[in-house]
Amino acid sequence: MPDEEIQTLDRPQTVNRPQTAGGPVDRTLPAAHTTPRWLGPVLIVAIVLAALNLRPAITSLGALFEETRTGLHMSGAVAGLITSVPALCFAVFGVTAPRLSRRFGPAAVVCAGMAAVAAGLLIRPFATNAAGFLAASALSLAGIALTNVLLPVIVKRWFPDRVGTMTGLYSMALAAGTSLAAAATVPLTSALGGSWRTGLLIWAVLAAAAVLPWLPIAAASRREKAAAPAAPREDSGPSIIRSRTAWALACYFGLQATGAYVTMGWLPQIFRDAGVSASTAGVLLAVTMVMGVPLAFVIPGLAGRMRHQGPIAVALGLFGLAGYLGLYLAPAAGAWAWALLLGISNCAFPLVITMIGLRAKSPAGVVKLSAFAQSTGYLISIPGPLVIGTLYQHSGGWDLPLALMAGLLVPQIALGVLAGRDRTIEDECGMRN
């Protein structure tokens, strides 16, 4: 099956050979069906465009949430539900990615995912009630969930010798898209007449552009599948849940996502409660998010060259501990320093995505691990922002919430060390690659 083939763009494909003693089966395609020369550059563009669209559906709404809530007459309960929907959709729809990938191929599913993102972003500004808005948002989030899971698979399948570099490229694009939507939505909305509907609609254009390069890639993938010899039915062996590395990655993913969502949702309020102006608090959040752009490229490349990625996880966790300690002791006096430190700590996301690609031997293994780690991780992250908000409300300050966030970094560091060990899920579970 396509998920089981490791194809390198800058290396010629060879004729299938039977397994020899001590050597794996070569499952590359026959020489008559080589990969088109145009596929490599188009894939890079497609991956970057897809990554740019993985967060604007969320951060653009955050920038205009008050206007959207008022315009659609949302109750407080419905507004709270909408803020919890992204993580829930990522968990629920991400689970379906392996099955869809096996049936249609990862490129076709990512293409469909980008189309779903564009369709949802196009429809939701025209919603007349909260239910319609929520349904359109869920459509976009479903497409994002599938792409979240399958981009590491795309990288592993077509760029197996450059996992760190390519993961860094799309992690950097993801961070850029997140920051761009957060920073540009309000100014663009004002420039285009001030309607929140227009401000949300403009991001459908970027999503529609991301669909275009995936169309020829999906078509080429189908042709390769049709031309390739029939592959044996996949035998995945024991369930992935038997892998301690898979569980370490899933829990590490969940804790870093918790920290990221708490930062995006509550950091400006922490600064404002300390006496920082609202405009400065917004800029400080932007600084925290922008830190992910260069580091999201550097960290995966560094991680890909290391046999054990645990030291990076430790370093990122220590930056986070320093940031939370600073917020606890002097939130206003050192605001810029704490924003920078937390921005560095939040780069645990590109690290865990890189480790997902390194902890499996084949694209088939990566798709299983990516779906499991991300779906389980997003489920773990759902209560975080709600718990922090509840603690803030009942304690009347930020001391207890900050202590909890700092405390969660301790198991996050330990899990990062476990997940960073040089081993694969296939070895742990007896799965065939």
Give the tags.
433 residues, disordered N terminus
Structural account:
The chain is mainly α and 433 residues long. 74% of the residues lie in helices and 0% in strands. The protein is built from 20 helices and no strands. α11 packs antiparallel against α16 (348-358) and α13 (292-304) packs parallel to α16 (348-358). The radius of gyration is 22 Å and the shape is globular.
Tally of separate helices:
20
Report helical residue fraction: over 70%
Order of helices and strands: HHHHHHHHHHHHHHHHHHHH
Largest sheet: none
- Quaternary arrangement of the chains shown? single chain
What's the gyration radius in Å? Answer: 22 Å
Question: Averaged pLDDT, please?
Answer: 84
Query: Could you give the count of β-strands?
Result: 0
The geometry reads as: globular
Cα distance spanning the termini: 12 Å
Category from helices, strands and their pairing: mainly alpha
Instruction: Pick out the low-confidence regions.
Output: 1-33, 234-238
Strand content: under 5%
